[in-house]
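Hi team, as promised in this morning's meeting, here are the two structures we talked about. I've kept the exact order from the run log so nobody has to guess. The first one is mostly here for context; it's the second one we should focus on when we meet again. Sequence first, then the predicted structure tokens.
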Amino acid sequence: MACITFKIKVNSGERRKVNVGVAHSEGNPSTQVMNSQGIWLAYTILVGLLHVVLLGIPFFSIPVVWTLTNIIHNLATCIFLHTVKRTPFVPDRGKASLTHWEQMDYGLQFIFSHKSLSISPNVLYLLASFYTKYDAAHFLTNTASWLSILPPKLPQFQEDHLFGINKY
């Protein structure tokens, strides 16, 4: 990779080198965004913040808050990972028919980001089930939400959509 170096004069009178053309060469940054520094901390904080905000609503009980946290999390990940297509960073480049989940890490399976994003709905489902004390209505709602988010994360559905949903 070619690098162009300029010498610039700073206010103090000293000269510094500025490298031009050393930015990342990633053609599609959405393939590596889940491996960037701090993304997992931000993800955990956002889920925790959602839960705390829902806890702050006075007429919601604890089981309702856990169920809503689970449902909103699963709905958001379904929309942002499995429904939205294309890449927001660069022009098409042949990725128009791929969701963010399919573009992530160039479509490789069983890597850290895929495993973590597959485990998080399971952990949230178990927490929601436990804190709702397995109440039938909450349990069925949480199970339906969990079962709807699980299949798109399986390797068998990589670039293959169940019943043709989100095919185009």
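And here is the second protein, the one for discussion:
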Amino acid sequence: MTIVTDDPAWWPIIDWERVMSYFVVASSTAVVYDWALSFAQEFELVWRQSWSFMTVLYISVRYGGIPFYVGGVLSSIVSVSMTDISCTTLHFAQSWIPVVINAMLGVIMMTRIYAMYQRSKRMLIFLVVLLLASTVAAGVMTAIGNNYVSRAELILSGNSLCFTQYTNPVAMALTRETLIPTLIWEILALCLALWIVAKHFCEVRQMPIAGDSFTMLIKGHVLDFVGFAAVSCFNIGSLSPTLMNSSSAASNIYFGILQIVQPVQMFVLGPRLILGIREYHAKLVASSDEGTGMSTIAFQERGQVSAGDGV
């Protein structure tokens, strides 16, 4: 149902949507800029290589941001008229895309940890159960939250907006808390990675190449964790009544930063978990025909050991 009103009390909503649209454009620009900078590397290390499960995950994560950004831009441009069905579709897409993308990133992280633990079947089973539990929990929370939401076109003084209304206040908080199960997964994954790296450096001090491999892997884990932790903190912090009921510049900046950090975490840091591995392996192959460093930690995607085959 389209709502038409010229009530001046709604004008702060128009200003808020316009400010958010600036941050959405800034976020899109950052992701596109990163894609342009790394496309040559991506073409060499991904598109020109034999396809594997990791290749499919990389492409899905890297380019899964396109519908996310299209929905974000369309819903924030006040001059674009949207029907009720379009508003509802965009809302569900923007709610579920982070769940799906974070699940894919979890599979990538699980593969890395599985390789670091020398392809231990027990560790693989533990990781699969843990990731499945966190993903199902996030999916159930998202589904429950969306069950109590309605989206409608709101025309304010000639400006078209997609208006979101929650019939249950708890559901609105639930949609912001969907990242908590994934955050628990990220914390446990980081602890497992730190443990095996510490154990490795204590046991193997005479293998600098292998040590460099583990150092590269743990850097990727830490960077991904920091990015996801920042997104989770911003999402949980947005539940503050002070922020939700405020139209101040500080509140706008807070929600605007959230519009930037979440896509960057998913579509910039996420793909680099795979791109960094392949770049490192390519350098090893270039300097040594055997590439013994990555073989040592069982993370080659081709040859004797394949990181993607076991997932």
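Starting points for discussion:
Residues 249-287 form the longest helix (39 residues).
Residues 290-311 have pLDDT under 50 and may be disordered.
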